[in-house]
Structures are given as structure tokens and as C-alpha cells.
Amino acid sequence: MFRGAWLLLAMAAVLPASAAEATGSLDGFDEFMLAAMKEFKVPGAAVAVVKDGKIILSKGYGFRDVARQLPITGATMFPIASITKSFTVTALGTLVDQGRLEWDKPRYGPYVLNPATARIVTSASRALCSVFGRILSSAIT
Q1: pTM (2 decimals)?
Q2: Domain extents for the chain?
């Protein structure tokens, strides 16, 4: 079901946007969402469509709790778990593409004892152990 949800999200992001662009409206979007949810067995989804910096659609489909029949609305809050990591790396990659950041250039700051690169920071589990290990060992000795 999880894979189906991601596929549904990808389809919702790409296919209807193309249709909306061609027709200038979101006609048929509700039918598309309901059909895709049924096909991929997704009990509920929330969609926001932003055009020119303005929200033109914010809507929920299906249920956030099927057993209790609690609907999803445009204001339903979802736990996003670790998805912010991919948002962060995508944003950093955009900065690299724009030439405003380099993956392997050390960065310094007022609280940085050991400079780190964007590449190291984005693989935090290994990098932080190394950095904190050095901080702790220098504090102890």
C-alpha cells in the first residue's frame, strides 16, 4: 500500500497538472483522484495545487481513519516522518545547480568547531558521530 501511495502522489503531481495546464482548469481532477485511489487501494489523500504562488486547490479525499470514517480535509495534518530529509537534500541540490553551494566545499560558522561540507552534513548519521566524537574527546582531554 505504501508504494501505491507514492505512485498516487506522483501521478497526482504530474498527470493532472498537465491536464490543467492544457485546459486552464482542474475539471476532472476529482474523478481522477477517486479513480487513482481506488486502483491503488489508497484510503485517503490530501492534495494542494499551487499556481503562480497561490493555492488554487486544497482538498481531501477519502478517510484518515477508515474504521471510524473520519474524513481527510484540506486542513488534515499528516505525520511526515523523515521525508524532510529528502526536501532538504533537494533544496541543497538546487543550490548546487544554481552555483550557490558546492557539495565538497567546507563551511564555517560561529559555532562550528570542525568545518563540514554539504555532502557530510547530508549523511549526518556518520558525520555527526565523527564531529561529536571529536568535540567530546577534545572536551575530555
Answers
A1: 0.51
A2: 2-71, 83-140
Contact predicate 12/47, CB 8 Å: yes
List the one residue out of 51, 32, 53, 33 whose CA is nearest residue 43.
Answer: 33
Tens of pLDDT, residues 93-119:
999 999 999 999 987 777 767 777 888
108, with CB counted inside 10 A (0-12, 13-18, 19+), is: exposed
Q: Which residues are catalytic?
A: 82, 85
Q: Measured between alpha carbons, how far is 46 from 33 in angstroms, rounded to an integer?
A: 10
Compute the C-alpha angle 27/32/35, nearest 5°: 150
